[in-house]
Amino acid sequence: MSTFPPGFLWGASTAPHQIEGNNLNSDFWANEGRVPGMERSGDACDSYHRYAEDMRLLADAGLTAYRFGIEWARVEPLPGHVSRAELAHYRRMIDTAVELGLTPVVTLHHFTSPLWFAQEGGWLGDRAVDRFTAYVEAVCPILDGVEWVVTMNEPNMLAIMVGMARAMADQQASGEWQSPTVDTEGPRPALPAPDPKIGERLVETHQAARDVLRAHLPGAKVGWTVANRAFVARPGSEDKKRELEHIWEDLYLDGARGDDFVGVQSYSSQWVGPDGIEPHPRHPDNTLVGTAYRPDALAIAVRHTAEVTGGLPILVTENGIATHDDTRRIAYTGEALDHLAAAIARGADVRGYLHWSLLDNYEWGHWEPTFGLVAVDRETFERRPKPSLAWLGETARRTAN
Predict the structure, then answer these.
(1) DSSP β-ladder status, 231-233 and 221-223
(2) Number of alpha carbons in the 13 Å side-chain half-sphere of residue 393
(3) Is the pLDDT confidence value at 189 over 70?
(4) Confidence of residue 188 (pLDDT cuts 50, 70, 90)
(5) Helix residue ranges, H only, 310-401
(6) Which residues pair with 69 in a beta bridge?
(7) In terms of pLDDT, which residue wins out, 37 or 271?
């Protein structure tokens, strides 16, 4: 059995737009359905009202942590207008997690922003840093006692989403919507690389938000999470791999220097050849989002992150597989955890593992890919725990003994 350090966190993650429902004031809600093939989030999983039930499922299974987000578009639906009711709602979520014995890992921005923010220029607007830090200031009072705070989720993927939103706003844009979390398969174009200009602005914003959080919450651990592609070079392609790593990951990992931790988010691995990233071919073993079945990717991601950040403490904030076969989910996760334990044994400072996702949810334009430990009936919102939830809870209990 793989071994993990004492106090290791075990849990699962979610994102507010993907599970809450009716995030009416966000930029993503405004764009839903505008492009052929893009489904609407609608009521999502109705977790805005059912969060206690969701948390109880985690706690009852024996898990010890829950990563969830605060939705900026709810807290500040208009510039400078902060909703006290929404702040109270998210504080109730924090209190509920603690009452159930779950360590809250709170994300302040998970891809979506207020529509007004996007309309005034978004992340490249003149006021972007000030707008975000003002929101963080407003949220600080409800974060009292929270140990883990994530400023932004996957800024490297956010940079891609900003570019895709620009294309969607272009009247000449055509073709079907491609979710940023769905890999290339068949005739669709590959996802564009993150725009370094946007990335640099996000690094600046993150570090400004970190300063605000530290000023108000001296006991909190502050960091952000990075999507790791777990690149592996073909012989002779090591320089190309390093070039791509800087664009896709290292700009953001360097931005984490000085943080208290960094979140690693890993699902699969990609080969790099002399011409760049190699598209993964169709294969019966591929996941529902078209990626290769690569549970070893998590250890590759952890090792690379530790190397670039100089050994910064790591929290695995997302790892999972899109599949309808829960036995495959258990197999994938078990293998990933074995690889993670081996990386820890070799010196990686990993503080916890948070599975993606707690619930089958809205996958950024699509409902088909299912990552959850719990299925959700989209008509009745009934939660149906899968065997993988009990399995992960038992794994957590065994490692605690």
Answers:
(1) unpaired
(2) 19
(3) no
(4) very low
(5) 326-345, 387-400
(6) 107
(7) 271
Task: Output the pLDDT for position 362.
Answer: 98
CA 276 remoteness from chain centre: 25
Query: To which residue do tokens 């950040």 refer?
Result: 309
Angle at 8 between CA 301 and CA 392, to 5 degrees: 80
Tokens for 312?
């910064």
Phi, psi of 272 (to 5 degrees): -120, 125
Burial 227-242 (b: 16+ CB within 10 A, else e): bbbbbbbeeebeebbe
pTM: 0.95
In the chain, % helix, strand, coil (3-state, to 5) comes to 40, 15, 45
d(CA 95, CA 98): 5
185: pLDDT strictly greater than 60: no
Query: CA-CA distance, 148 to 364, in Å (whole number)?
Result: 25
Pair of tokens at residue 17:
């737009």
The 3-state DSSP class for residue 135 equals: helix
Please report, to the nearest 10 degrees, the dihedral formed by the alpha carbons of residues 57, 59, 63, 67 taken in order.
Answer: 80
Residue ranges of E strands in 205-267:
221-223, 225-227, 231-233, 262-266
**CA 135 – CA 82 distance, rounded (Å):** 8
* DSSP letters for 143-206: GTT-SEEES-S-HHHHHHHHHHHHHHHSTT--S----TTS---TTSPPPPPPPHHHHHHHHHHH
- Judged by DSSP in three states, 74 sits in helix
